Amino acid sequence: MTPTATERRNRTVVLLTGGTSGIGRAAARQLAARNVTVLITGRRRAKGEAALSEIQDAHPSGEGAFYRTDFAEQSDVRRLARDVQADFDRLDVLLNNAGTGQGERTLTNDGLELTFVVNFVAPFLLTNLLVPRLRESTPARVLSTVTVAQHDKAYDMREGDLSNLDAVATGESFELEQAYVNSKLALLLFTYELADRLAGTGVTAASVNPGLIGTTDITRNAPLGGTKVSHWIAALLARIAPLGPIETEATAGEMLVHHAMDQELPDGEAVYFDRWEQADPEPRATNQTLRDRLWTFTADLTGLTETGAMGKA
């Protein structure tokens, strides 16, 4: 049945970055099943249009859109924010899920390390640019996928080191696991600072570690060795029977949707979910000095001054 104009206006709108593969694609399908208007992003147009077609074939009454976006390019992120706000007069959930992991040091056109940019700088910029529309759509939510936790052996957030942000941003002494952990620790810190800055606005913030999936970009780009083999094994086990921190793409997608749509979140205080349950974050996530320093540093990288959540609430 074709939805009426009123039904379209009343539908929840979710922007899901990285929705063309993996847990993002699984989450997009599940959001569509809830009659949510699903907006997905990806770098490859053919892949994105295929994902959107798959969603629409499964849910003919559903609505959605694909935006080709390369998160390595700040101009693409800015265009995405402009296009979404031009196309939709509401945005209920921003789900920062796009991510990558590079096997070797790769620099963007801005001279910044690619993993740090895609996993953290781009979500920082996109979120701030979309905060005005989120505030107009309250209650609204920002949920970010951090994909590492204190218990992960290879990607332990306690091993993150953001003491030299210039070195992290440019990839000096690049090492795969360290770069990935640093980018996700930064995203976690951002989530806590964002929640604080948006206190009282009706926009809440949370982050989630969906567990070990085994089929992510970081696995594909990792050099052949222990890290890649361990993820291959995890992926195989997940297909047979999810166990412990191991999830299938489908169950991890369901997890993202649950935290994005069903969980109650406190105002002005970020929440960290370790898979399905709320948990204590890496202790540095609540360190105000580090949060302020990271925010100021990234605002300078992106040229943000008076937009989104730049000012303290």
From TrEMBL:
Keywords: Oxidoreductase. The keyword Oxidoreductase applies. This is Short-chain dehydrogenase. It comes from the Archaea. One of its GO terms (molecular function) is oxidoreductase activity. Belongs to the short-chain dehydrogenases/reductases (SDR) family.
